[in-house]
Structures are given as C-alpha cells and as structure tokens.
Amino acid sequence: MKERRDRYLDGLEAYRVGGAVRDARLGWPVTDTDWVVVGATPAQMRRRGFRPVGRDFPVFLHPETHEEYALARTERKSGHGYTGFVVHASPEVTLEEDLARRDLTINAMAETPEGDFVDPYGGLDDLEARVLRHVSPAFVEDPLRVLRTARFLARYAGLGFTIADETLALMRELSESGELAHLVAERVWAETEKALGEPRPTVYFRVLDECGALAVLLPELARDTEALRAALVRLDRLPEGLASNERRRWRWARLVEHLDADSRDAIAERLRLPRAYRDLMRQAALTRWLRAQPGPTPAAVNDWLDGIDAWRRSERVAPLLALLELEAPGLADRLARAWREVSRLSPRTLVEEGFTGGALGDELARRRRAILGQVLDQS
C-alpha cells in the first residue's frame, strides 16, 4: 500500500490502523481508512490545517482526504458500559500503547504511509490462522466488544475464521458480569444492524446465544431454542432483488416474525428500532399469521390487507406476496389473484353511487370481502 508522501504529514509520525490494514491483507474491500498520530498535540494538528471533530478524545479530519486522524491515546476503566473510560491522549503515548487498547489482534496492526508494517500483538499470525483473538485481558472492560467480535465473525466466517476459545470465554464472562446491561440501546442496535448486513448474519446471533449475550440483550429470542433455530434458518429466505438496506430490514423481520406482538413491541422499545424496521417486522408477522389461517377466509385476507395498510400503501403487497411464495407458493398465487381483483375497486366508484361517511367505509369493506370471496372460492 505504498503511496506518495503527504505534505500535511511531513514531520508527523502517522500510521494507518485498524480495518484498512486488516482488510487489505485479507483481500477484502477497504471502505474507510483511519490513522493514529504519535507525538503530536492538538495545537500542532490545527496549525497544519486538520479540523478537530472528536468530542471525547482528539480526532481530526485531513484537510484534503477528510480521513480521520486520532492522536495516540490510552484508556482506563472508570465506570460501566462502553463509555466508562478515562481517555489519556498525549505526545508521550506510544503506538504500541495505543494499539494495546484495541479489541482484537487483527485490529491492532498498523503501517506507515510508505507501507512499513507494525504488528506488536501478532495480528498477522492470527489473520493467517483465521482466528479472532483479544489483544489483552482488558477486553472485558468494554462490553461492546462482545457484539463487535460476533459481528466480525459474521463478516469473516466464510473465510474460515473462528473465535479463539480464550476470547469466547471472556465474552461469556462479560455476559455473566452484568456489564451488557449498561450498553445504551443505540450502540446495541448499531452493531446488530451492521451484522444484518454482513455475509453471514446468522453467525452473529448464534455467537451471542452461545456466549450468553442474547439472553441479556434479546431474551425474547433466546428463551425458546427451537424457535430461535428456526428463525436463523429462515433469516436469509428473502424475496429476490432487495437492495442492501432492504435486505437488512427483511432479515430482521424474518428473525422476529414468530414472536407475539408484546415481545416484538418490547424489543422495538428496548432497542429504539427505526420506524422502517418496526413496520416491516409487523407486516412479516401478519403475513405469517395469515399463512396459519385455515383457508384462509376472505375475512382473514381482508384483515391482512387492512393490517399491512395495503389500501394506502399498495407497494407493500408485492414483496409480502414474494415472501409467501417462499413458504406457501400455492397460497401466494391465490392471494396475488385476489389482490389484483380487489385493488381494482375504487372508493371513488362508491362515492359516485352516493355513499358517504361511515356508510362509504362499510360498503367498501363489504364489496372488498365479496370480491375476495369470489376469487378465493374459484382458486
């Protein structure tokens, strides 16, 4: 990864760190590049044109590339959760001390702009052995590392990676210590949402279950082993042609579709789920319910269409029918024909016939059920 000397870095001891170093050696796409600067002060960085952006510790944006440059720092545990640390950044902090605070050895490698490699904790050996291993016993000081390690395995499991036994033991220790309860909802969800976008998201939830973290963070999923196993099997049974952001939402919806409404609501409130995730998991649960109904009857189909707000949000119907196609293709075909017919009925037609107010709504519902009944009876 040789590159021309950056004039803004002349005289600075700067190192590329973390994911960019790791992924370049794995042949994985490098999306972000972060840097550590050793021996500098905030004043020196500002004089060179770097713009400060860090709130909790000194981080600066490069004047041209806008990549992040953090001053070397150490951390000392001072409280609960991932924020319970006292950060010390000064020109005396060495690169090795900065790297020592990182979670995994494969994330504790560095290199200079000229490509000189620094690996004080054996990250390259673990990278080649396909092992996720903690840098030091200080791993247990940050409960977020349980989720991050599970997420990294969800990303790299296809390359043959595993979690070192001693690291998994520390993850269990963290799960049993009560520290996970101090993680704020936004960080738990941020890691989970990222994991839903990884190549093997099921691995994330399996690891959390194996180390005991799932029972703390998502007890509704962890309490029924068989139901969880079935949920993970269907996690990637999705409608075709989804964009990456849609795929994350659909994976989440499939994961929790078997839960009752109270459990889904509890998870949504605890994790402060975005509206799009809440809506889709409810629609998937309603579709699962419809699949379980005998027949199903025109009234049940009408309730399903009402429940997913199909009359105002008709774009929701096709992907949910595609989901049904995966689980119950015959039913999906019948419902597709029923939807085509019933969606042709326009409320304007009834208004022109003189219906208004409550009578309009009642007649619209009656005719919709009648159309659904006709089509379903013919199927």
From TrEMBL:
Gene3D superfamilies: Beta Polymerase, domain 2 (3.30.460.10), cca-adding enzyme, domain 2 (1.10.3090.10). CTP binds at G19, R22, R102, R148, R151. Keywords: ATP-binding, Magnesium, Metal-binding, Nucleotide-binding, Nucleotidyltransferase, RNA repair, RNA-binding, Transferase, tRNA processing. The gene is cca. Catalyzes the addition and repair of the essential 3'-terminal CCA sequence in tRNAs without using a nucleic acid template. Adds these three nucleotides in the order of C, C, and A to the tRNA nucleotide-73, using CTP and ATP as substrates and producing inorganic pyrophosphate. tRNA 3'-terminal CCA addition is required both for tRNA processing and repair. Also involved in tRNA surveillance by mediating tandem CCA addition to generate a CCACCA at the 3' terminus of unstable tRNAs. While stable tRNAs receive only 3'-terminal CCA, unstable tRNAs are marked with CCACCA and rapidly degraded. Belongs to the tRNA nucleotidyltransferase/poly(A) polymerase family. Bacterial CCA-adding enzyme type 2 subfamily. GO terms for molecular function: ATP binding; CCA tRNA nucleotidyltransferase activity; CCACCA tRNA nucleotidyltransferase activity; magnesium ion binding; tRNA binding. Residues 160-223 form the tRNA nucleotidyltransferase/poly(A) polymerase RNA and SrmB- binding domain. Mg(2+) binds at D32, D34. CDD domains: NT_ClassII-CCAase. Its cofactor is Mg(2+). GO terms for biological process: RNA repair; tRNA 3'-terminal CCA addition. PANTHER family: MULTIFUNCTIONAL CCA PROTEIN. Residues 14-133 form the Poly A polymerase head domain. A single active site specifically recognizes both ATP and CTP and is responsible for their addition. It comes from the Bacteria. InterPro entries: CCA_bact, NT_sf, PolA_pol_head_dom, PolyA_RNA-bd, tRNA_CCA-adding_enzyme. It catalyses: a tRNA with a 3' CCA end + 2 CTP + ATP = a tRNA with a 3' CCACCA end + 3 diphosphate; a tRNA precursor + 2 CTP + ATP = a tRNA with a 3' CCA end + 3 diphosphate. ATP binds at G19, R22, R102, R148, R151. It is an enzyme of class 2 (transferase). This is CCA-adding enzyme. Its EC number is 2.7.7.72.
